[in-house]
Amino acid sequence: MIKETKNDITKTPGSTYQVFMKNGIFQGISGNKSRKGKWKLSNDNQELTIKICIISIKFSVDYFDAKRRITSSSETGTLEYEKVEE
């Protein structure tokens, strides 16, 4: 994650990643903590749902290309990610 904005406060959290794998498998990584879950993209590619344990968050996909993604939700605010090359 390169930028997080919520309630007009912008943060630049380090070492925060989202990994989207085949078959809807998701992994969220923050520092040395990791959580696994499921992800689903709507048919029109406008809504991303991530479910970890019993928590499910729906994100609006505000921008998406091969290198960058911006999503937003009322719970998390706006999250901006850049693709990390393997």
From TrEMBL:
Name by which UniProt lists this protein: Uncharacterized protein
UniProt source species: Chitinophaga skermanii
